[in-house]
Amino acid sequence: MAQKVTPRSEDYSKWYTDVVQMAELADYTPVRGCMVIRPYGYALWENVQSGLDRRFKATGHQNAYFPLFIPMSFFEKEKDHVEGFSPQLAVVTHGGGVELEEPLAVRPTSETMINVMYAKWIRSYRDLPVLINQWANVVRWEMRTRLFLRTTEFLWQEGHTAHATEQEAREETLRMLEVYRDFAENDAAMPVICGRKSESEKFAGGVHSYSIEAMMGNAWALQAGTSHFLGQNFARVFDTQFLNDQNELEYVWQTSWGVSTRMVGGIVMVHGDDQGLILPPRIAPLQVVVVPIWKNDEQRAAVLGAVQQVQAALPDVRLHLDDREDVTPGWKFNDWEMRGVPLRIEIGPRDVKSEQVMLVRRDPVEKRKQPLPLAGLAERVPVLLDEIQRALFDRAMRFREERTAHVTTYAELQEAVKLGFAWAWWCGSRECEDKIKADTKATNRCIPLAQPGGTGRCIVCGEEAVEQSVWARAY
After folding, report:
1. How many helices (H) and strands (E) does the chain have?
2. Going edge to edge, which strands form the sheet with 221-231?
3. Among 416, 277, 270, which Cα is nearest to 339's?
4. What pairs with residue 433 in β-bridges?
5. How far is residue 419 from each of residues 156, 274, 403, 436, 464, measured CA to CA in Å?
6. Nearest Cα to 240, choosing from 396, 249, 178, 259?
7. Euclidean distance between CA atoms 384 and 357, whole angstroms
8. Are strands 90-95 and 98-106 parallel, antiparallel or unpaired?
9. What pLDDT does residue 84 have?
């Protein structure tokens, strides 16, 4: 490609924007803070959707759809919720040329609307649990935006469940967090830390919030998915009750959980390099691209004959034949490197004579290019794609481990968060949390579910602490 990507070491933020635009994942629009997701980027999002949706349905959830517009009075019923979202609300005051009797918020999240409906539908313990997910767009009026990572309008899924008991709801909250971890690590090849958010970082209106936190290529953190235990907070406000098996009225226990198109941005930043995208095979829109090479019509016929053999050998692989004749093979190589296709198959006249192809991996390994007999394609390519998938996860895990410190003094923490993640004992106080943020710009990413055990001294105040937190700069 004619345009060069800004090196990550020179300007990481510019590198990210260059890659997203030059790989044709997304582009800016005339509407401030809003993006167009281009076909290649949307195909990647569809694969994220598919991987998550399959897991949701395997755990008993069903998809539904709720309105984009939410009466403002719904938000005002839940004090913490409205305070948390008010600065980001987009509000419709006029419709059909007249002023509305009640303003309508453009959906920032759906807890309020869904509770109004659940209060209509749920009558008995026999109606529970309700396990619903919706794929939708939401709007949050962001001041500082960045393609995929933080936009005014974005796509996501939001799960909303109602249960008869607190235990069931808490189990659901952690079950869905595990679903997110499983997708992130096994499909997106993105190592994550599962943990509980601090009180200051939790969802507005929730009891406890949990997240998966990933390290990006500049060693900053990204909250890649969240799962919230809502308790009975919304149920009490919206009078969502049921008759239990003793014929007594109770409020339901609820959860909500979500992953958005921010996951696409995370995939770019975890795996990409100065040549562009590197996509894990399980979610790549194209897993293999075939680039034929010839100089004359005779060679063309022979090469395309071999290409047909390749296509026949790989019916279950997402494969694309790049037979464009208005650009050179070298241009094509750079183009597909930019787009992050995991595996390239090159076939030229010499390969045809030798009854072989040349395989080229996109991920950074010592031997990226390797010849392979045509007869071995059907067996080797699926294995190689699995190898690339594992290699990308292992590479990202090594990167995180090399940039993670377990600190024992405040001075060590201040230095560690400049380079990556810092694990430290924390007493749980808002004052200590705010001091770290003020001094370092690092935030409390989560309190990991996997704790070292025992107790320690708070990294800030020295008081006894029973849990460690992970601190980092974050998007």
Report:
1. 14, 25
2. 62-63, 130-139, 153-163, 253-260, 221-231, 208-215, 192-196, 443-448, 467-472, 421-426, 404-406
3. 277
4. none
5. 31, 20, 6, 15, 27
6. 249
7. 14
8. antiparallel
9. 65
Domains and CATH numbers, the chain: 12-271 (3.30.930.10), 288-380 (3.40.50.800), 404-472 (3.30.110.30)
CB neighbour list of residue 301: distance below 8 Å, 6 or more residues apart? none
For residues 23 and 277, is the Cβ–Cβ distance under 8 A? yes
Q: For 293-353, give the DSSP string.
A: --SSHHHHHHHHHHHHHHHHH-TTS-EEE---SSS-HHHHHHHHHHHT-SEEEEE-HHHHH
Which alpha helices (H) appear in 371-465, and where do they start and end?
A: 377-402, 410-419, 430-440
Neighbours of 91 (CB within 10 A): 15
The reported pLDDT for the residue numbered 205 is: 87
Compute the distance between CA of residue 12 and CA of residue 218 in angstroms, rounded to an integer. Answer: 7
Query: Is 91 within 8 Å of 72 (Cβ atoms)?
Result: yes
pTM of this structure: 0.95
Element of type H or E holding 223:
strand 221-231
Place of tokens 């290699």: 391
Average pLDDT of adjacent 10-residue blocks, the chain of 475 residues: 84 98 97 96 98 98 97 82 76 96 95 95 98 97 91 97 98 98 98 97 94 98 98 95 96 98 98 98 98 95 96 98 95 97 97 97 92 96 98 98 98 98 98 98 98 97 98 97
Beta pairing partners, 347: 292
Tokens for 135, please give them.
Answer: 């794929």
pLDDT at 88: 87
